[in-house]
Write a structure and sequence with these properties.
Layout lengths: L4 H4 L4 E6 L4 H11 L4 E9 L5 H17 L3 E5 H4 L10 H20 L3 E3 L4 H13 L4 H4 L5 E4 L2 E4 L7 H11 L15 H11 L4 H21 L7 E2 L1 H4 L3 H15 L8 H12 L6 E4 L3 E6 L2 E4 L1
Parallel strand pairs: 1-2, 1-4, 2-3, 4-6
Antiparallel strand pairs: 5-6, 7-10, 8-9, 9-10
Helix pairs in contact: 2-8, 6-9, 6-10, 12-13
């Protein structure tokens, strides 16, 4: 049985749905088809990394869209990459940025409400473990959100309560094939190594998900308790706050100044805190997004 409660929560409208050709995204597509009030536009990015296999994935998605009589946008990586500046050096992060850019273009061109992604409960557990290994705090350990806004674009993840195996069993039940990505078996990627570990320890899944929930609740409390800083605030305002509250106040303030939300790392937040606490730090500093912050006579503001 596939839990569909979160599918039911998707508001009627026009949505892009990301379909890689893998079981998860193909299952999501079929689950969405049962809701005629949701207009779907399939989006697929051929990363051009696996030769004929990548081409075959794109062909599979194109044929599936035709069979279901759904509009589709299928793009190649080299159609988008040359038009983007300052792409991340990390391969996974770079491809994620490219996919987001494609989603943004399609949503804007087709006047859609946003994009629906097929991340599921196993993806969520893997994400939490990866962030734990990287030293993330409560905000990162809360995992992926079922609804998120990135660069003004709404992203929905209605399958975060559904297990990977349930989606495959559903496709077998309805007689729908899918594509398998051989690179998902490679030890080259940390996520694959974490996936295999979690598959060998199924008893850990609920524990990890519960850590995510608790972290999300803690983060929400911190957001609510963190004082809002004025556009120009006294440096002592951050100095007096406990570290977690200071970080959150700094996050909210930097975001209002134009620092990209995706670049508000703990290091960036602590740099603003150090500017406020330590008068020996540079009084004028550049933050992500080419935002200059300065300290003058005990006050912090954007230059």
């Amino acid at each position: 049985m596939i839990p569909t409660a979160d599918i039911e929560k998707i508001p009627p409208g026009r949505w892009a749905v990301a379909v890689s050709g893998g079981a998860d995204s193909v299952a999501l597509l079929h689950l969405l088809l049962g809701h005629p009030e949701i207009f779907l536009h399939i989006v697929h990015l051929d990363h051009q990394t696996r030769g004929e296999e990548s081409t075959a994935d794109a062909k599979f998605v194109r044929e599936l869209a035709g069979k279901l009589k759904l509009p589709a946008t299928i793009a190649l990586r080299d159609q988008i990459e040359p038009e983007m500046d300052a792409l991340p050096k990390n391969r996974s992060a770079r491809y994620r940025a490219l996919r987001l850019e494609l989603f943004r273009r399609v949503v804007e061109r087709e006047k859609l409400d946003g994009v629906i992604l097929a991340h599921h409960a196993d993806d969520q557990a893997e994400t939490i473990v990866l962030r734990l290994l990287r030293g993330s705090g409560p905000k990162g350990l809360s995992g992926m959100k079922p609804r998120q806004q990135i660069g003004g674009m709404i992203i929905l993840r209605p399958l975060l309560s559904t297990r990977r195996q349930q989606l495959r069993e559903y496709l077998v039940q309805i007689g729908q094939t899918w594509r398998e990505d051989a690179s998902n078996q490679s030890d080259r990627y940390a996520r694959n190594r974490v996936r295999r570990f979690l598959e060998s320890r199924p008893d850990l899944h609920e524990l990890i998900i519960s850590i995510g929930r608790a972290s999300g609740q803690y983060s929400q409390l911190i957001r609510q308790a963190a004082p809002r800083l004025d556009e120009k605030f006294p440096a002592i305002a951050l100095e007096r706050l406990p570290r977690m509250l200071g970080r959150e106040s700094a996050r909210q303030w930097l975001k209002r100044q134009g620092v990209p939300a995706g670049e508000l790392s703990a290091d960036v937040l602590d740099r603003l805190r150090r500017m406020s606490i330590d008068a020996a730090t540079p009084a004028r500093q550049m933050f992500p997004g080419n935002i200059t912050i300065h300290r003058r006579r005990g006050w912090i503001s954007r230059a």
